[in-house]
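Support reply, case 0932

Customer input (verbatim):
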Amino acid sequence: MAMRGQTNGQTSMLVAYNVDERIPRDHPLRRIRAQVDARLKEMSPRFEKAYASQGRPSIPPESLLKALLLQVLYSIRSERQLVDQINWNVLYRWFVNLLPDDPVWDATTFTKNRDRFASEGLVQAFFDRVVRQAKRQGLVSSDHFSVDNTLIEAYASMKSFKPRDGSGKPPEDDDPGNPTVDFRGEKRSNKTHQSTTDPESMLMRKGGGKESKLSHGASVLMDNRTGLCVAVEVHRPTPTESVQVAPKLVSRARKLLKLKGYLTVGADKEYNGGPALMALQRAKVMSHVPTEKPMFPDRRGAAARLRAHRRMRTKGYAISQRVRKRIEEIFGWGKTVGQLRKTFLRFRWRVKLQALLTGAAWNLV
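Our regenerated output:
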């Protein structure tokens, strides 16, 4: 029988230790940190241009970007909580290059630097470098991709969805923070109403029988070989906008990865319209989209639809449609771990930064 151990009542002491030795050698963050540090080192010239050569020293942008990656990887719901956890978590301090006795920056630092990250394209550049590294390691295909879109619930309440002309029913009580609003008998649409909290969000629903929510749209281009995210775009959540973004994603990936020749892109039936198929065709894409044979051969896009319909008989189409479903894994991971089910940021450009960081984190993982 073992003797009972006693606790040490001492509340403070001086301890010296190597932080790197406290992190397990097989911890996943070790490999992720090595990849991230290499990509950020490549971006050093861009950081030099984004910041002034004189003045008060700022917090290193490398540390801020790595902290935002931690927020995605560990599903930390706010930047204030992120700063709080970095303060006492040795693993997080090690990841963002803070010594155990270094003070942690204020949460508002992210707000002030997010504008700089967007205007200088630093988050987009980091995402692009992660994708290029995957290409160098042979993890990205040269000709087979898939595209799809989803909805990201906006950081706005339905009570903020008010008439654009300022009319509407007044609140039923005097609580300005959470007024009681009666929507019965009121027809609300994106043409007549707008959110006062996030004006760029729109009232959309995923399908029939689903409730409508204020949302942003997001489209992703996935590599079919390993399921990596090679291009991301946040846009208006309308079906037309989602379809029009697809050729832009393909062109962006072609330029980023230096791809030549025709590519195959799998998609669902939402992309089977004549104009959409023609746009993909102009982007040198052989679309693998479920398409019915056009009944009116003289209508716009009928030839493109006929070619897509004939392509459904090929073996490549069957493979592409089977692999295409893996893009839902990106959406599922991004909405649960990356917290994109409902964003905590307002305005589309901020949501795009969050989506790019989530895509980069998915690729690194």
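We compared this against your earlier run and they match. Two observations from our side: The beta strands are 144-153, 161-163, 193-195, 202-204, 213-223, 229-235, 263-266, 285-288. The first strand starts at residue 144 and ends at 153. Please reopen the case if you see a mismatch on your end.
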